[in-house]
Amino acid sequence: MSYRKDMNLATPIKAENPIKTGNAVGHSVCPHDCPSACALEVDLTPDGRIGRLRGASANSYTAGVICAKVARYSERIYHPGRLLVPQRRIGAKGEGDFREISWDAALDEIAEAFLKAEARHGSEAVWPYFYAGTMGQVQRDSIERLRHAKRYSGFFDSICTNPAWTGFTMGTGALRGPDPREMALSDCVVIWGTNAVSTQVNVMTHAIRARKERKAKIVVIDIYDNPTMKQADMALTVRPGTDAALACAVMHIAFRDGYADRAYLATHSDDPEGLEAHLQSRDPAWASDITGLSVEEIEAFAKLVGTTPKTYFRLGYGFTRQRNGAVAIHAASSIATVLGSWKHEGGGAFHSNNDIFRFDKRELMGTAMVDPDIRMLDQSQIGRVLTGDAEALRHRGPVTALLIQNTNPVNVAPEQRLVKRGFLRDDLFVAVHEQFLTDTAKLADIVLPATMFLEHDDLYRGGGHQHILLGPKLVEPPSTVRTNLFVIEELANRLGIADRPGFGRSEREHIDRILVNYDSGYEHLKAAKWLDVQPDFATAHFIEGFAHADGRFRFRADWTGTPAPNRPPAALGMLGPVEGLPVYPDHADLIESADADHPFRLATSPARSFLNSSFAETPGSVQKEGRPEVMIHAADAANLGIADGDIVRLGNVRGEIRLHARLGGGTRPGVVIAEGLWPNGAHLDGEGINVLTGADSVAPYGGAAFHDNHIWLKRDEALRMAEPA
């Protein structure tokens, strides 16, 4: 597909007249792992099926716009390959031979396997493993209640948000910010480290509105020429892991040229004098050498934001998936403080509104049953855990049983070869509750079929906005599939813990309890569809002070002493090379840099038509994405004798894989991009891109650096030998 700057790449899905089509309209919310949590209108046919999905125009953030993959959801819910019955493995692990069994037999086998694992190695031998395949509070988080009631191994959910949340709150003290709808009221929107066209379409809705109505400028900062970059008035392509250097140079210029709001800094920041002195040597020439941007590009960007008070910095997750990611987002958010952008409607810095939602999930998650002596295992290091790494196991016994819901670690987790090796252990029992036979389900002993979001009740919140939304059951599921909550309840019955607090409740009862801090519950929210809980302007913009005890934004980062939304428990301690973190915003040279043996940097960026490993099974998405490829700069390809479409090998100490080459893509020399999390089997040798990604922790509080990998790259020698002389 060729992109044009004037295209509305946010993909508005226009409503059809339900009276004309004969369909009723139901209201729901997209459950997938995305900050947008779009409010949906769903066509419901007279025979009880869904038709087209579209964005709810009455919701002020969704504003009638959703991504095309969700609009085609009927492809997914009625997919002929959907799992419909429980199955037991009958062949060797990895052969994919399964036989249908009953629900009772499947659940009995899971419970028996868990009890055997507990009897042999203690309760920590069982590890319930989950993530954000659904963002529904009840269906996602009920597994934690089972964990705590049974004293199974704990779960440190490091894989996605930790570097970003840690770095942002290091400065602000809270994970909230200016109303995301204020982007439409800005004079400059800086979209930093997120390909919003592909991953958060509603960001573009509001940014484009600002351009149309206010002639606002859109700046995009990323590592390659993706669809969002093509929408930019100013597109800045930086080398991976160098964003903090750009931020420092912008602040250097702000102090140098008088853009810094010194009065604001005096009342709202901790050490502006120390920051200014620190930045004296962080000039544009210094940053140019690190980022690959020209001095002129850096100067132009600094002048634009420095002379535009209503600049809104929309900070994403992508640029934090580096080993210096927490430092990068802290530095980027510091610009808004140096400029005083927070003071203005349509100004400031925003990453997530996670802290504004006052949910009471104590009973849902069973937090009263938490035993602090139970070990915590790092989600990102599942490969190391399952292959017996003593440090990953916290120097305790093995994991010999897994219950997996809402995630696909054999495909999505780093160090894929270790992960797969662990799953192939003969002494490991694995139960997977899934919608499709994923790479992980193929290695399970028991596979259970799961409902999809339109087939059950649940509650959602939007980290990228400010709405609490209800997703009520709109259609009947196939008679043989079951909800996540059903599985947890049935296992609780078989494991002897059904009398513990929180068990025995329906989805609707849990939703009522989660919303106890609001004048709302299931029935009220069903009528209202959503609640807007955006804080007032002064709170959202930190007008009366930031959320640290002294009310000041912290330029001087206390990387080991500051609370964060997902700080590891004391038993885990600090994670990653904390000693390498800078006191002030700075370029931290912690990345997996290119070297003589690995001259290229690889980022595993998201594809527009997939969402992590979801949608990689639907025909519309697969057709649009084509095949797994790696984008290579034309000059690099020429030096290596690689032509467009050639098969190339990529490798590092973790392994190697083969992909087809795609020349161009707007990368910088020395940078390669592999878009999309394709199923492992879609690759030439049956191994996916995460063979090449590392599971070492991002400092200081953990996380996975998916976009921070050095590799070697060469044309496939088998192809070369097959060519005529």
TrEMBL record:
Residue span(s) of domain 4Fe-4S Mo/W bis-MGD-type: 23-81
MF GO annotations: iron-sulfur cluster binding; metal ion binding; molybdopterin cofactor binding; oxidoreductase activity
Superkingdom is Bacteria
User: Which Pfam family would be a valid example here?
Assistant: Molybdopterin
Q: Which SUPFAM superfamilies match?
A: ADC-like, Formate dehydrogenase/DMSO reductase, domains 1-3
Database matches in PROSITE patterns: 4FE4S_MOW_BIS_MGD
Gene3D superfamilies for the chain: 2.40.40.20, 3.40.50.740, ADC-like domains, Dimethylsulfoxide Reductase, domain 2, Formate dehydrogenase/DMSO reductase
Q: Which UniProt keywords apply?
A: Iron, Iron-sulfur, Metal-binding
Q: Signal peptide location in the record?
A: none
**Would you identify the family this protein belongs to, as annotated?**
Belongs to the prokaryotic molybdopterin-containing oxidoreductase family.
Protein name, entry field: Molybdopterin oxidoreductase family protein
Q: Which species is this UniProt entry from?
A: Ferranicluibacter rubi
